[in-house]
Design brief:
305 residues; mainly alpha; 2 domains; two-stranded antiparallel ribbon; 7% strand; elongated
Length: 305
């Protein structure tokens, strides 16, 4: 069996076993993009989203306070008259800009997250796995007036008699929007439902280490001749890397046996399969890279150029 055949069987077996190992509880969701890519993302928790909102509100308040101080400083330098009404106008303008543009500007950017969401490791994503558009971000933030501002207005309002009854009914009606995320599995608020979005944990990009560097120390000092390294090409190098990274003992044993037979290995026989494969990978990669410096690119073991 060829090296590609061994890895092919390994991949097929791993593909069959994968569904049984997938556990989609505790907020994990599977999303399939329009390109057919299967994504596995975790939905942001209630506590994380609430904490992110508090951080964003704090940022807005600090921004307004700073803007107010700058305005007062400008009035003091110019000796112009100012009043409490002016500060009221500044805060109303700041609240309007913050409510309507703060969330929109940050979420429409490449990070798709406000400072609060980024601090909590969250981001906004399209619920269907597609691309997040500006229309979606605008729609979800436009609904914030109904979900946050309107309930806050009712809860802070005061009245007597009929007014008090109307305020109470309005507050109860507003609770539908406030508590909506508690009654759906994806923890989506009304704005997310309207816009077709959801808040998920931002995936961490973990780069795999270079095998030629990290595994060189585990090669056991094995040395291969140029003829032994010329038995395979770039395609086989990639296949070998997949086998080593996967770490399946049975697959590594089959691949190591195949390579030993192919290159006529007469060295130590008590070397572990992983150690042997690490050493051969480092040697093969170095051999292919050195040949490429002289314009010789060997695609696979059948390429004799």
């Amino acid at each position: 069996m060829s090296l590609q055949g061994v890895i092919g069987r390994f991949r097929q077996g791993r593909g069959k076993a994968a569904p049984a190992k997938r556990e989609l509880g505790d907020g994990w969701r599977e999303l399939v993009t329009p390109e057919g890519v299967d994504l596995r993302l975790k939905v942001g928790s209630y506590a994380e989203r609430f904490a992110a909102l508090l951080i964003d509100i704090l940022v807005l308040v600090l921004g307004l306070a700073l803007f107010s101080l700058l305005a007062l400083g400008a009035f003091w330098v110019t000796r112009a008259s100012w009043s409490a009404e002016f500060l009221g106008v500044v805060w109303l303008l700041g609240m309007f800009v913050g409510r309507n543009f703060y969330f929109l500007v940050f979420e429409v950017g490449p990070k798709a997250a406000t400072p609060g969401k980024r601090a909590m490791g969250l981001r906004v994503a399209a619920a269907d796995g597609g691309r997040l558009t500006a229309d979606m971000v605008f729609a979800r933030n436009a609904m914030r007036e109904v979900e946050v501002v309107l309930p806050a207005t009712f809860f802070l309002a005061r009245g007597e008699g009929v007014d008090a009854a109307l305020i109470g009914l309005g507050a109860l009606w507003s609770l539908v929007f406030v508590l909506f995320p508690l009654f759906n599995r994806d923890r989506r608020r009304m704005g997310d439902l309207v816009a077709g979005t959801m808040v998920v944990k931002a995936p961490k990009k973990v780069l795999q280490a270079d095998l030629a560097d990290t595994e060189r120390t585990a090669s056991g000092g094995l040395v291969f001749t140029p003829a032994q390294l010329d038995a395979y090409g770039i395609k086989e190098l990639h296949v070998l890397e997949d086998v080593i990274r996967a770490g399946d003992r049975k697959s590594m044993a089959e691949v190591a046996m195949r390579i030993r037979g192919k290159i006529g290995w007469e060295g130590p026989t008590d070397i572990a399969d992983r150690t042997f494969l690490n050493a051969y990978y480092a040697g093969l990669r170095g051999r292919l890279e050195s040949r490429m410096l002289f314009g010789h690119r060997r695609k696979d073991k059948f390429d004799r150029t």
